[in-house]
Amino acid sequence: MSGRVIVVTSGKGGVGKTTASANIGTALAASGASVALVDMDIGLRNLDILMGLENRVVYNLVDVVEEKCKLRQALVKDKRLPNLCLLPAAQTRDKTAVNAEQMQKLCTELKGLFDFVLVDSPAGIEGGFQNSIAGAEEAVVITTPEMSAVRDADRVIGLLEARKEEIGQYRLVINRIRPQMVKTNDMMSVEDVLEILSVKLLGVVPEDDEIIISTNKGEPVAGTENPRAGLAYRNIARRLRGEEVPFIDLNSFNVTWFDKIVKIFTPVRA
Amino acid sequence: MQVLNWFFRNKDENVRSRAKDRMRLMLIHDRLELPPDRLASLEEELIAVVSRYFEIDRQTTRFDLQQYERRAALIANFPLLRSKS
Amino acid sequence: MTKIAIISQPEQGVLIDIGGCSTLQEATQHLTSTLQVSSQFWENMHVDLNLGDLALSKEEISQIMSIVAEVGVEPRHIYAQLEITRASLNAHNIAAAAGSPMNLLPSGSSDRQSSVEALEDFAPDTVQSALSPGEASPAAASESRETIVVAVESTIDSALPLPAPSEAARQVTAPAVLCLRQTLRSGQAVSHGGHLVIIGDVNPGAEVMAEGDITIWGALRGMAHAGIAGNTSAEIRALKLQPIQLRIAHAIARSPDRPQTFAARSSAPETARIVNGTIRITSSAPE
Fold first, then answer.
1. Is residue C194 over pLDDT 60?
2. Which of A159, B20, C32, C240 is deepest in the core (most CB within 10 A)?
């Protein structure tokens, strides 16, 4: 078996990169593929918490790289999906504990075991980021429609382009879109961001309170019936698997009674 | 009062398009790693060169950075009045 | 490489490792918070300092040295990986020990090798209550918590007795009991070759390891590993025992997947020990 190694990255922190990794991984696994989630945010481990697996972590990625344990021993099986595994980051080490070469070797090994290897990269564009893209063949860039996030995403896309040989394609996920704010021209739209970044779109994830709830429960929304963010992530997974899935109409979301009243009172703007 | 302001906000106070314009300009500078004063000095030099051959209308001379895909283009517009002998 | 690790061995003294920090600012912050909270502790102690991969100028070295000197610590060895940092040390007439102090670093993780098999095969639906009241620890069975799941290697015969530090070693180097008066935060780790006492909390993401017992006068919310050299009679006790994971010798217990209800959560101090091959938690009421 030779799986695909996909790095999930963003440049800016706090745009939902780890949440996206957890959800895309869950959605891919739920659709039947075998998936390894690799947490490369060494020293700031979080993916295990989002997956609700923090109490099962015994070994971590650094232990594998340092050959303190076998890869199989460090993989933590998901609670719900038997074909989903997490390779946790080390919490009490820092990013210098792993180098690019070791990462490549690790990805090659994982690729032999799983259909998809999703690497959750740390924020920033320094060593930790460079290591996390070292073994990758594809990239998913996460951004939000905020200027600072778009700027950092652009920087990351530039760095990914410079590695065209290794990273064959990169696609964008726009997270935390608030349709109501786009409608009132208070926020950049999906089209605006795409036009500015000139990059292929993989998915659009609406702002959804369920994300916070699911984080607290340790159960990614993509594994539930959630019709907003959960559906968006399930669609992203389908697109990653090569299906043509139409983008959901964001305008159908977030129309609360308050929005409706506001709509009656506010004049339509050009 | 704030609520009223919110209801009757000015049409051209369009945060979205402003963000988009700022964003576009910022990214062009980022991608080219362009120092802020570089464009101004280029403008000056170009005007000086063109002025050697033509009289130009300085009022309507325009320099513009535009984006094509992930590349940037410099669009310069020199309205020529007459050629210099 | 931890952000800051205090690694202490009775025979060898204490190693303060700030090699995991990526900036001077980070290093000084960690160093200050660690040293100042437990200042008396450092008196007459054999202390080594590991600067790891930090690239420091002469001025930056003086900054580090003055933080250390403030609590009366004079490091015996200073380890530095980078040539530039060693040159800066030399400029202060401090001899830099070459390489890294690997002999002091804990080898706890290699001891875990055998136990992981048991943990990884633990399907969530077969999770059973590991703490049956009464039977396991009759002495202190007043209140047994039902939810800690235990996985343990069946043959724990490699257990080593806690090394008794020699009288001489006790005087010059670190004590058999290491007592730290500080809260350990995420990314911080303490490893000690004897018994470890923390006066403060151990937060999620922090790790405490000891060859002997671990006693926490505060809340244990991170990971604690007692008996890292294989001592199965080591114990972990805390005022509030709410760890993400507990390890004693080769046994590993993890916290329940569902958060405990308020009523089920013990408010009394508790002790974890190995009973019949599994980790059991009992109230630390007087026996």
1. yes
2. B20
Q: Is A253 on the interface with C (CB under 8 A)?
A: no
Average pLDDT over residues A140-165: 94
The residues near A164 (Cβ < 8 Å, ≥ 6 apart) are none
Q: Which of A252, A213, A216 is nearest to A232 (CA)?
A: A252
Name the amino acid, one letter, at A44: L
Can you tell me the distance from the alpha carbon of A240 to that of A28, in angstroms, rounded to the nearest whole number?
8
Probe site for chain B from A147, A157, A183, A199 (most B CB atoms < 10 A): A147
The chain C residue lying nearest A51, using CA atoms, is C257
3-class secondary-structure state, position C12: coil
Would you say the pTM of this structure is higher than 0.80?
no
> Which of C261, C245, C153 shows the shortest CA–CA distance to C208?
C245
- Residue C208 lies in domain: 109-283
The domain boundary residue, chosen from C47, C80, C104? C104
Rg of chain A (C-alpha set)? 18
- Cα dist. B2→A183, A186, A260, B6 in Å? 20, 17, 20, 6
Sorted by where each begins, the domain ranges of chain B are 2-83
Task: Among C55, C84, C104, give the residue marking a domain's end.
Answer: C104
Question: pLDDT, tens digit, for every residue of B29-41?
Answer: 888 888 878 888 8
Whether ipTM > 0.85 holds is: no
Tell me if residue A201 falls in helix, strand or coil.
Answer: strand
**Closest alpha carbon within chain C to A89:** C205
Angstrom distances, CA of residue A109 to CA of A82, A97, A113, A114, A117 = 19, 19, 7, 9, 10
